[in-house]
Amino acid sequence: xxxxxxxxxxxxxxxxxxxxxxxxxxxxxxxxxxxxxxxxxxxxxxxxxxxxxxxxxxxxxxxxxxxxxxxxxxxxxxxxxxxxxxxxxxxxxxxxxxxxxxxxxxxxxxxxxxxxxxxxxxxxxxxxxxxxxxxxxxxxxxxxxxxxxxxxxxxxxxxxxxxxxxxxxxxxxxxxxxxxxxxxxxxxxxxxxxxxxxxxxxxxxxxxxxxxxxxxxxxxxxxxxxxxxxxxxxxxxxxxxxxxxxxxxxxxxxxxxxxxxxxxxxxxxxxxxxxxxxxxxxxxxxxxxxxxxxxxxxxxxxxxxxxxxxxxxxxxxxxxxxxxxxxxxxxxxxxxxxxxxxxxxxxxxxxxxxxxxxxxxxxxxxxxxxxxxxxxxxxxxxxxxxxxxxxxxxxxxxxxxxxxxxxxxxxxxxxxxxxxxxxxxxxxxxxxxxxxxxxxxxxxxxxxxxxxxxxxxxxxxxxxxxxxxxxxxxxxxxxxxxxxxxxxxxxxxxxxxxxxxxxxxxxxxxxxxxxxxxxxxxxxxxxxxxxxxxxxxxxxxxxxxxxxxxxxxxxxxxxxxxxxxxxxxx
Length: 570
Fold this sequence. Notes:
- The chain has helices at 20-29, 40-54, 62-74, 103-117, 165-182, 203-206, 209-215, 228-233, 252-266, 284-297, 302-318, 335-341, 348-363, 376-381, 389-399, 417-427, 434-437, 440-443, 450-462, 474-486, 498-504, 512-528, 555-569, and strands spanning 80-85, 88-93, 136-139, 156-161, 185-187, 190-191, 222-223, 268-271, 327-330, 407-410, 431-432, 466-469, 493-494, 549-552.
- It is α/β, with parallel strands linked by helices.
- Strands 4, 5, 6, 7 and 8 form a 5-stranded parallel beta sheet that branches.
- The termini are far apart.
- The relative contact order is 0.12.
- The chain crosses the membrane at residues 57-75.
């Protein structure tokens, strides 16, 4: 019995296959006995199959081809450019894309065109976002949260929030959610003195403590201090309370199975640090507590709100020609950020030396480990380099924002600010920062407290008509979500394609019209992505729909329906 063959009848057992040469000879002799003539389609199919089988060996070279391509991409291998001048061959070295910071040359070419258009552009700020969106969203956190009061607490939940302003914010909101899940009483979060931020502020210095406790009263019990009997159990020292080691992104089931028994047994548990300790995907009731904490209960302290409101009013007044609308930019071009990115600009050997010192100071040997290869050109082409103030300015001018636009720059201490900020101020004379928008006396209580200063930036950016993010991080992620929550689901944020920008800024010969077209396409893309629903792997702090917001009928239709209802009632 022989197995089935797709090629026809089985060959007798033990009979070796005939040699190709013999088969070829037999085919020649049998030429006169061939079957029906093949159609053109059959011939094409046979030809393609034969080509594939004859060139199978090419697949063996695929890894080599891939490695060669990566070497070219990383800038290890460069091709020489050969040109003819007066019958003489000229060989010049061509730098790979992104290996040289060419933005100043691009600016030099495009600046005359920007000047020529300064007084001829329309008021982009009045119509920067598409008003044809048919669906709007509104906050609806309270719909799923009960106001029936709280059952007896299972114990006290203590967390330590570390990092900067928005890392602390994330820890606080997650702690509220976990406290609600465990039916625990939350102690006002303790702030860890971060080695990078070096801010000794407490919760009450940054957030309104009374408002936080009051706003959560029907959802999570919050206290400022532990009761005396609980402290006595641990010799009046919070650090004696057991610190549970909880893995990052732990599920609600983990907290119920592992943390809750300890809480009920000891009356108090502590998790320090408490950063990213709760999974992104959790039941809707837990998500709603996150929403409530972030968007409704966490407001800045009175001292921060007072100055921040003044700064917003001043920006609105300075942009009165634009209907009180202004652009805010989160600029990440501090020395530490430039050093960490391992990108190179136009500072030469002095810059390289300064960056080496900065990397060693902040990360102590991390970038000198064996096998660590730094490729600035590859980083730039991959969109990982911080945008310079010059590049941000060119991008905005290309999008259509003219030199009368009021711009607020949220940033720390800019690396070589005098040099790098000059072209941005040249393109946007109405430019403000904390130090120019507020007086030295107003800022004095905030000096040395980076989280409080960041809170000022956060508020001014929150209320701008356009927010521009340039490098990622917690600040823009939280801000985009907060803006979606306030502005009907639209983040009103420009999130540039930095890979595309790297290639455009690498071309000193680019035409102004081509550059403008690319920038305006980028602006349209940001507009389209402004309203975006949360995916399972995303954070609701950036994408509050649909966990924190509900879809509402088109505003125009809704207003028309309301009018009809009014007419009927009258």
